[in-house]
Amino acid sequence: MVTSTTSTTATPTPTPAATPANAQSVMNAATQSLLKSLEAGSGIDTGTLVPALVTAQFAARTAALKAKSDTLAAQISGVSTLKSTMTGFSTALANLVKGGSLQTQPSSSNGAVLSATAISGAKLSTLSASVTVTRLATAQVARTTTAVPAAQRSSSLDTGALTLTIGGGTGISIAIGDGSIDAIAAGINASKSGITASVVTDANGGAYLSVKGGTGAAQAFTLKGDGPSGAVDIGGGSTQTSLVSTAQNALLTVDGIDVERPSNTISDLVDGVKLQLNAVSTIPVTLGSSTPTDALAQAVNDVVTTFNEVLATITEQTDPITGSLRSDPAATALLRSLKALVSKPLVGGATGGIPRTLSEIGVATNTNGTLRVDTALLTRQIAAYPDTIESMFAPSSTNVLGLSGTLSALTNSANNTSTGLGASTVRYTAAEADVTEQQDKVTDQSAQLTTRLTQQYAGMNSRVTAYKSTQAFLTNQIAAWNKSS
Q: Cβ(142)–Cβ(244) under 8 Å?
């Protein structure tokens, strides 16, 4: 099933900007606090008054910057949601196509003898072949005939310098280290020649060298030393090793034609099919094909379901009234492209009534832009044009369009950092950084004003206190004069 992951992020609600009336109200309250303090003769409460005045001074600007910041945060979140949604849709469909369940599969009448798998992009609806496996490809395997006792396992075998030759080619020098059986095996493996070696220990602790090549006659090999022992020589009349098996090609007959191959895995014999030879048989194995009718129908339904989910997300973000991205050109372009997907050709060069688009195989568009499946039409089209509809999902070398490729291209275009949603992210992020810088400036200016007002009111408070002290002295002095008289 085609499923996509959609990120959902709560959209911040912008804070309404403070109105001049609100700012004036704060200022009036601060002034009344000042007058009350002076009348009470208790001094000015700068701890309350100064923050109130500073808040009033910057209230409108602070609110405007916060509203802008919230809007940008919602836009960045919206872009991220759309990018994630489209990528999830594209990736899910690509994985479905790669899984091979939407491609016609080859069938074998006897899988124990011969199994077959489809090569990606191949058309197999007309596959028909008869194959008889006469011989399997085998690899040369050789072993030493005498065990090296456990007590002598680290001793040199006196082989001298070893040369490995594969299929009559150029000899390969083998590093033998200390000349022990383990060092010789390690040297063969280190040559990266395709020949592998291992040391096998028997029940008594004795060690045997086993050397194995690749399948096919061309992989036959010899191993020769220039030392006196010839302990690990293979081929050329050597007496201290024996062949467990020889290198041979696979022999088989395809539709009456005798052929041979160096491997039991064959991709160049039957068009669009990889064969795996498992056993020999005198009875021919019949190859045919099976069209994934049910899987294709299910895929169309899954694509429609996922499309509607993706459409709902994009429509929400681009809503002309409430959408965070309602004025974003990349988001609106993506919405237009997505809506046009149903009528976009997915098969090239089709003529004579052969369907090329989703709408022509039964995917219809509702009045609200969502899609639905006309099951009856889809069933008829799959029965009539199985290869064509398969190509819509599993593009081949002759049709590189396909829904998966088209959707991938649409997603890449949407995420483009020059013209797509990627560019929107860059733009909104830069604007957000600018707002943050402005907010920092407001914070600095608020701090400066707070310091200045605090100093001013502290000085005023000192002078008022001095005036009140003088007033008290004069009052007491006048009272004393009146009493004495």
A: yes
